[in-house]
Structure formats: structure tokens, C-alpha cells
Amino acid sequence: MANITWKMEDGSEISADVNDGLNLMEAATANNVPHIEGECGGCLSCATCHVFVDPDWFTKTGEIDDIEDTMLEMTDVERRDNSRLSCQITASPELEGLVLHVPEP
Amino acid sequence: MARPIVVLGAGQAAASFVSRHIRLGSEANLHLIGEEPVPPYQRPPLSKNYLLGVLERDRLFIRPPQWYVEHGITTDFGSRVESIDRDTKQIRTQNGDIIAYHKLLLCTGSSARKLPASLGGDLPGVYTLRNLADVDTMAPGFQAGRKLLILGGGYIGLEAAASARKLGLNVTLLEMAERILQRVAAPETSDFIRNLHQSNGVEIRESAGMKQLCQSGGRVSGAEMEDGEEISADLVLVGIGASANTKIAEQAGLDCDNGIPVNNICQTSDPDIYAAGDCSSFIRDGHRVRLESVQNAVDQGDLVAQVLSGADLQYDALPWFWSDQYDCKLQIAGLNTGYTNTVVRPGATHNSQSIWYYADDRLIAVDAMNDTRAYAFGRKIIAADKHPLPEEIADPNTDLKALAN
Questions:
Q1: Residue B351 within a domain
Q2: How many angstroms separate the CA atoms of B163 and B344, rounded?
Q3: CA distances for B391 relative to A63, B345, B350, angstroms
Q4: Is position B80 within any domain?
């Protein structure tokens, strides 16, 4: 389990304990985080679960593969160096305290 | 009291509507009524990871069941609606409950076509794949070494074939038309997908005329072909398309014709009744289309929530689709309806390529196989209404990203 925090542009936050093995798109929709849609269910076809990872955490969220890298070109808010598709980040104890910033189109 | 909005049908369109409605902070009370006894869930994994047993049931749900309670939404899952009375603006459920609406949203979806009983369609061991309950019923029979016969070479049949092969079943797939995916894709895409399945051990028979299913001991035992050949099977999956669930709308006197026609804000012929998802049909590029897709369900449901909150929007989302079979990721952007020619673009690896559809000199759609760059930049190019020359697309040295930006 890991406690994950999503920060909105207006400064509001949503935090939740996420079970190991769930991806953070699923966790976001389950906790009603705005702007995280996850239309394709996590199969890298929609780019609607875009997040900016807090720079301190970026490397801990794992590698970006070619498909994710390409789909990051499709996000509503333009990608940055710390962009991820949150369906590709899997919860694990190492992510305890992770902070994700939610882009708002 | 706020004026109630009633949503009939609890699939992906309904879930999208409800989510947007809650996010907008709209005051209207929501009442969500679905025939299936579960909250809205994702259908795409049913034929794939859920059938394979690698995705737990709870992970299919779009929102956890308690989410609806926490947001003050009245839900009736497992409830059938008997009729809509448009004069009094009320609906009647099978239990005799009367529910008043100010606005009504129809998200009744579509149903898998069944093989007629006269051809053996209701024999035990014959399945269709549409709902969670369908997969829960058939999955225990999907055991290694058994023979699965699939009728229909569309996406459902092909995805089920891939899952069944992974589970170790012997799979034969019959397609009545000249080629699999004939209704939805160009011959090049059919060829690619046929090769994929054949190399994974599926026997694919096209132009296959089946006479009827056969039985033995009260269960399906195979199929008799028109030429007299018999193909034996332990299980049969019928994947011959779906039809829009319009009965309740027709009974209420709404115009219906292969779906419930809606205008560009998803409004039906009754201004207080909207329709979204598989059950609706709308005009796109001058053609009336009805789409069975997550994208359309989600985007239409979302649009209706915004329109009912006073937004001035029109539905013009670019359609997109996907299908995962074995290790092949097929991603589609645009609609190829009315295409006149295609261009094949080789991918970066031997098992990747993309098929680009043109209507004369207008680029209208792309099918990308293991080629997310073609899908992603193709989607951008089409959405931007750009029309690169076919020779540019066919040239693997052309930078798609540059064309898109």
C-alpha cells in the first residue's frame, strides 16, 4: 500500500491509500480526482490520465516505454519533462508519499 | 426540489454523464437505472483480461459502488423499465414504480445478435459476449484442450479467439463474408489480422457457409456446413454483431432507425429526451452513423452533462477505437466510412504497419498495428483536418510528428 496525493491547480488535494498492484489512473478515478479520465482503461490509447510527477519522485515511478512516450504527445495539456500517463504507474510501497500534479485543460 | 434527471441504462455513456454531472456541481437530482445488477463497468476487458482471469472483477467498475451513494445518486441496478410516458414525463419500472423526469437520458446500449434458435442458437454451450454475466457464464468452460468454434470474424470474435488460444483452447473461426473484418476495415488490415491469428494457431475459414449448429446429448456439439462437412466443437461463441436497444424509445413514439437519431447535442426527436452511446445515431461528415465504442459513449455522455448545465457545445469528437489481440495492439483513429483508397505505411518493425484511408484526397482514418506513432500522429493529423499526400504517408522516412504539428 502507498499513500498517494493528487494536487490540483487551485491548490486543493486528494489523498488516498492505494493497494499494491493497482495503477494510479484506476486509483484516481476511484477517488474522484478531476481530469483523470482513463477512457481506454489503461491500454495506452487515450492519454486521458496525464499527470506531472513531483520532480523528487520522477525516477521512482519507473521507465517510460516507447508507446507511453508517443501517447504523451496526445495529452490535452502539453507534456513536460516530468509527464507520465498514470495508468502506467503501479502502486507499491516504494511510492509511499508520492505527489502527482493534475494538469487542467 | 431540483428537477430530476433520469438516466436509463448504466453502461459507459451513463457513467461518463454522471461523472461530469457531479464534477460540474449540477443541482439536479440524478436517478440511474440499469438492467444489469451491477454499477457501470468497462466492457473492453471482458473479451480480454477478464476472460483470461487476470483482471479481477472489482477493477472493471468505473467507479466503486459506494461512489454513487457518496454523491447522492439514486441507483436502481438490476431494474427494468417498462415504459416512458412523454406526456406526463414519467417512466414506469417493471416493479410498477413511477419516476418523474425533467430530462431523460437514454443510454440503453446495444445487444449481441443471437443465432436463431432454429439454427441451434439456444443450445447449451452457445454463448454471446457482451455483458459481465455472459463472461461469468462462459469462462469456466474455457479450458485448455477444448474446441471453441467462433461464428463471426469481427472484433469480439477475434479478441475472444486470441484469449481462447492463450488459455490453450483449439479455435476455429468461421466468417460468412469473403474476409474477416470486412464490414469495418480494408483488405490490408484483414490480411494482417488473419496472419496474426493463423500464426497463433487459429483456423480461420472465410466465405464459410454454415447450415446449422448440431447437438449431442442436449448440448452443442459443432456445426454442419452447407457442403455437408461437420466441424466439432465443445463451445460456440456467436459474434455476429450487435443491434441498438431502441425498443423502449420506439414504444414511447420516438423516431428510431438503426438507433435513436440525435442532433448535434445528442437530443432526440423529443427535446426533453437525450440519447448517448451505442443506442444513438448521429450525423458525421454527412453520413448518419451509429458507433459501438467506448470513445463515443464517453464523449456523448460527457457532452450531454455539459449541455444540460447550459454549455453551448456541439458533438464533433473524432472517433477512435482499439483492440488488443495476442501481442498486437490495433489502434484506429477516424472513421473509414466512404473511403475510396488506402495507403500502407510500413512500421518500424516487421510486425508493425499502418493503413491510411482516403476519401479521394481527404485523409479520413488510420488503422495502426503495433504502431502507436501512426495512431497518435494520425489522430492529430485527422483532427486538424490536414490531408497529406498519400505518397508522403507511404514513405517511411516522412516524419509523422512534423505532419501533425
A1: yes
A2: 28
A3: 35, 10, 21
A4: yes
Strands B353-359 and B341-346: antiparallel
**Residue B1 confidence (pLDDT) above 70:** no
Query: What cell numbers appear for A104 in the block?
Result: 487542467
| B2 pLDDT higher than 90 | no
Distance between A105 CA and the closest CA of chain B, angstroms = 14
Angle at B334 between CA B276 and CA B258, to 5 degrees: 40
Q: How many CB pairs under 8 A join A and B?
A: 50
> Looking at CA atoms only, how far is residue B366 from chain A in angstroms?
14
* Displacement of CA A2 from its chain's centroid (Å): 14
Tell me whether residue B313 is in a domain.
Answer: no
Enumerate residues 64 to 83 of chain A having a beta carbon within 8 A of any beta carbon in chain B: 66-67, 70-71, 73-74
Mark whether B120 and B221 lie in a shared domain. yes
Residues of B with Cβ-Cβ distance to A71 under 8 angstroms: 372, 376
Q: Within 10 A of B86 (CB to CB), how many other CB atoms are there?
A: 16
Cross-strand partners of B320: B333
What CATH class has A2-101? alpha beta
Which domain, by its residues, includes B368?
327-404
Specify the DSSP class assigned to residue B142: -
Q: Residue A105 — pLDDT band, cuts 50, 70, 90?
A: confident
Q: What is the DSSP letter of A97?
A: T
Q: In this model, does residue B229 exceed pLDDT 90?
A: yes
One-letter amino acid of B274: Y
Band of residue B26 on the pLDDT scale cut at 50, 70, 90: confident
